[in-house]
Specification:
The protein is 37% helix and 23% strand. Helix 3 (132-152) packs across helix 4 and helix 7 runs antiparallel to helix 8 (267-286). The protein has helices at 6-13, 91-104, 132-152, 158-172, 176-179, 231-236, 244-264, 267-286, 297-313, 336-347, and strands at 26-39, 44-45, 49-50, 54-72, 80-85, 88-89, 114-122, 184-187, 201-203, 215-220, 318-321, 327-332, 356-360, 366-367. The chain is globular, with a radius of gyration of 21 Å. The strands form three sheets. Strands 1, 4, 5, 6, 7, 8, 9 and 14 form an eight-stranded mixed β-sheet that branches. Strands 11-12-10-13 form a four-stranded antiparallel β-sheet.
């Protein structure tokens, strides 16, 4: 059967996801990594759909680990949730997850008859410049799809499983849809890739040159404070941004160049593109109405030193930024023996308490229960 959208597809399929064959308690557990965007998306439309496509690299060590105990009751029309973060109740997180579960229940109607106990923790510190919402909603979406597969025998094919997990993860946090894939992924409709869509991410690993399969990401923690403007608020400010149209045009050009760089191992152009994208992201924040600044003086000093090091060494190192002050230093693993001393000697003093998190491109989520 042909569908006009993934939303239509999963709503239609939900008709068979109300009463499982056996009503027994169950348990599932998933580890899902965070990711760092290389081509940035900034601005949303409709329900968690991006204004422009994005490309990301999934990390290896920076992960959310979630376990879900569930019990389906056919005669009880009620969704209940108990949520624990790092072994303690967390009411704000529980409320956010409850809203999310209610939202996705139209695709998973059995949730309306289910008791859930969710326990979650991260392998990385909070406010370290790593997108915990991406890894946490990615992990929860994978667990929900695993529940469906166990209870109903659906999603037996890995491609169907990951597609739905990516779709559901997006509804919790846009960038989470990219975290269900290892390596490189793309989210958003792009004319270069027929299978791309705004409703879920797709893997790019089929076109990645071997030179990029061993990249590192050393996260330089400049600031761990709460951002003065959240990412959600930043996305909203793009709705009437004076440079919104120009940004969409820029992304279309940069995406084409990025796909070529990744496919043919062009590390120099890759470096220039990720830095242009990072600085454009913060330029959009600066020129919003009202404008705001998330970079700190030490962020700028670190960026300047990375660029000078690349110029003098000739090595393909580059930086990228998320919506915050912390700097991600990207470089191939084969150059770690040369780059790590540079980090220690010239960059660590600008980090908060010398905090640096060494991570690398990862292979994706793991089921452990």
């Amino acid at each position: 059967m042909m569908y006009n959208s993934l939303d239509e597809k999963f709503i239609f399929q939900a008709q068979g996801l109300l009463h499982p064959a056996v009503e027994v308690p169950g348990r599932t557990g998933w580890e899902c990594p965070s990711n760092i965007a290389l081509i940035k998306y900034w601005g949303k439309k409709q329900v968690q759909e991006p204004v422009n496509p994005s490309v990301s690299m999934t990390l290896q060590q920076s992960r959310t680990i979630i376990s879900v105990d569930y019990h389906y009751h056919q005669n009880v029309d009620n969704l209940s949730l108990s949520y624990f973060f790092e072994d303690s109740p967390n009411l704000p997180f529980e409320e956010r997850y409850m809203q999310y579960l209610q939202q996705v229940s139209k695709y998973l109607p059995f949730l309306n008859h289910t008791e859930l106990t969710v326990k979650s923790h991260n392998t990385f510190p909070h406010s370290a410049g790593i997108a915990s919402s991406a890894s946490s909603f990615g992990a929860l979406a994978l667990a929900l799809c695993d529940m469906e597969r166990t209870m109903f025998g659906t999603l037996a094919e890995d491609a169907d499983f990951i597609e739905k997990a990516s779709f559901l993860a997006r509804l919790g946090s846009g960038s989470a849809c990219r975290s269900v894939y290892g390596g490189f992924s793309l989210w958003g409709k792009a004319e270069e890739l027929m299978s791309s869509t705004n409703e879920a991410a797709i893997s790019l690993n089929f076109l990645i040159h071997p030179v990029f399969t061993g990249y590192c990401d050393s996260i330089l923690v400049i600031d761990s404070g709460i951002k003065e403007v959240s990412s959600s608020a930043g996305h909203r400010l793009m709705e009437n941004h004076p440079f919104a149209a120009a940004r969409v045009t820029q992304v279309q050009d940069n995406l084409k160049k990025m796909l070529v760089s990744l496919q043919y191992g062009k590390e120099k152009s890759f470096s220039l593109l990720v830095e242009e994208e990072a600085l454009t992201l913060h330029a959009l924040m600066l020129t919003s109405r009202p404008g705001y600044i998330l970079l700190k003086p030490n962020s700028l000093e670190v960026i300047d030193r990375i660029r000078k090091f690349r110029h003098t060494s000739g090595l393909p190192v580059s930086f990228t930024l998320d919506a915050g002050a912390n700097v991600h230093l990207l470089y191939p693993d084969r150059l770690s023996s040369e780059v790590r001393p540079f980090i220690t000697d010239q960059l660590s003093s600008f980090c908060l308490d010398g905090k640096i998190i060494h991570d690398a491109i990862g292979t994706g989520p793991v089921k452990f229960l």
